[in-house]
Specification:
One of its GO terms (molecular function) is GTP binding. This protein is α/β, with parallel strands linked by helices. It is built from 6 helices and 6 strands, in the order βαββαβααβαβα. Bound molecules: guanosine-5'-diphosphate (GDP).
């Protein structure tokens, strides 16, 4: 099946990537999802990191392999191999920093240059717990998502709001596309 394949315990394995500006919360969205942890420290390491999580969609067990840039975006050092084979992307901005929202255009261009054409992209406005610091309204995120054909969700990695839901939405959509192709 190309990019999604069977292994012993699960029916499918999907690769998905996290992208977005530095500091938007990518690594915390990953650790919250995969280990239910939140990290207040910043990352000491540079180099791609990834985590696995099993998700049940209907009667299928799907193993999601989620890649994190681990800080490489700071040096604009993400290469095409990061995106290779990825069926989904979580494109993250920080709703308390407008610049991270403005930069989405650049990230979308990069995704469309390197990634699969039918990649499932979930636009994620993170840090919804910081209500007094909000610089990007929810409807701005929603409008952009509609215009670009993306899924959309606001999350808080800190308070564990909508994190599971965002990944679930991505994995379910990937599953729908992949199983449809295999018919
Ligand atoms: P990355 O560079 O995109 O991987 O971002 P990190 O996950 O390292 O997070 C950057 C900073 O934002 C850290 O200080 C985190 O503690 C903080 N952070 C991440 N997610 C949230 C969130 O949902 N709410 C709040 N208040 N802070 C967050």
């Amino acid at each position: 099946m190309g990019d999604a394949f069977n292994d012993d315990e699960c029916d499918y394995l999907f690769k998905a990537v996290l992208i977005g500006d530095s500091g938007v919360g990518k690594s915390n969205l990953l650790s919250r999802f995969s280990r239910n942890e939140f990290r207040l420290d910043s990352k000491p390491t540079i180099g791609v990191e990834f985590a696995y999580k099993n998700i049940r969609v209907g009667d299928k067990l799907i193993k999601a392999q989620i890649w994190d840039t681990a800080g490489q975006e700071r040096f604009r050092a993400i290469t095409s191999s990061y995106y290779r084979g990825a069926l989904g992307a979580m494109l993250v901005y920080d709703l308390t920093r407008r610049a991270t929202f403005d930069n989405l255009r650049k990230w979308l261009e990069e995704l469309r240059r390197f990634a699969n054409t039918d990649m499932v992209i979930v636009l994620v406005g993170n840090k919804s717990d910081l209500v007094d610091k909000r610089e990007v309204e929810e409807k701005e995120g929603r409008n952009l998502a509609e215009k670009e054909g993306l899924c959309f969700m606001e999350t808080s990695a800190l308070e564990n709001v909508n994190v599971e839901e965002a990944y679930l939405e991505m994995v379910t959509k990937i599953f729908e596309i992949t199983s449809h192709k295999n018919v």
